[in-house]
Amino acid sequence: MTRSHVILIQACKFSLITEKYKERYPYPPFGLICLANILKMNGYDVTIIDLYLEPLSKREFVKKLTQSKRPLLIGISSYTDSILDAYKIAETAKEIYYDVPIIMGGPHVSFMFEEVMKDCYAVDFCCLGEGEPVLVELLEYLQYGVPNLKDIYGLVYRNSLGQCIANPKRGFIDSLDIMPFPWFSEKVQSIIREGEGFVFVSSRGCPGECIFCASRALSGPKYRCHSAEWLASLIYYYYKLLSFKMFGPLDDTFTANRIRLKKFLSYLKILEINIPWSCKSRVDVIDGELVEILYKSKCISVHIGVESGDDEVLKSIEKRITVEKVLKAITLLASKGIRAECSFIIGHPSDTLESIERTLILADKFR
To answer: What residue segments make up the domains of the chain, in order of their start?
Structure first.
């Protein structure tokens, strides 16, 4: 196989808010890391430029691009808040490598690909949804001319007339265990060693139906997750390599599959990994049994999305919880000394001044 180079870039909006967020959550770009691992398995060299953890001036960015091997493809991932920055990144990259195709993906692009293709002509392709199979097939096309562009599901491109063509969407990856372990740069490994802890993503998709969240629309309603065996192996490998003092899955619904959770924690016990950890959960799955499981496994904090202190608002956003259930869940966690970290949203379509005030009062009670 011809070995070729791919550059993957995480776009980031530069602002004071971003800087503060980055200080608290110095997380690597897991999406790009997954893509890079799959590309490496298929014989490609990959360079990741993470502008979130490593902000660069335009001059520094240009220098990094020009020092890199000439790529076969450049990929850029962006959220909505960084899409204008992503356009500038694409335009700068195209100035340096004018004949190298650029593909853009990420949550914003998956929903707004027509706008992206219209607003930024430096972007040659867009990726809809999960990018691993799309990138592999696109790279095969760029090298060998097969498969045809029209046969690469999940890909958006321009035809010979400059028209935007969106191929049918691709199905989701069902068996996540086919994915290799994520590999972190020396910079990220040093962050983990210095005490920030080990974080990872172990699932895709969300069974929730909250209307304000894009997780279900982006990753599907089916909760797809790595097996307990894969997950325990991941923790064990990096625990031996980096000796971290705590860990925390970033999944929004890590406790959704209780059978997997129990198996995973039992493996950690066998492996003698007895360190503090944290996770995210949902109010509607927190009960006495779950809290006992978390407590015995040294879970120190659980993040839950409360979103509002008003039952009518919660109903309107299809959160499927009530304020009473929220209070019960937090009381259960507190009874075992597990810290509840709650998130709220102000400005729901159904919010009123009164409902916002109730939300603020509830949030204040949890401080």
So the answer is: 5-166, 176-365
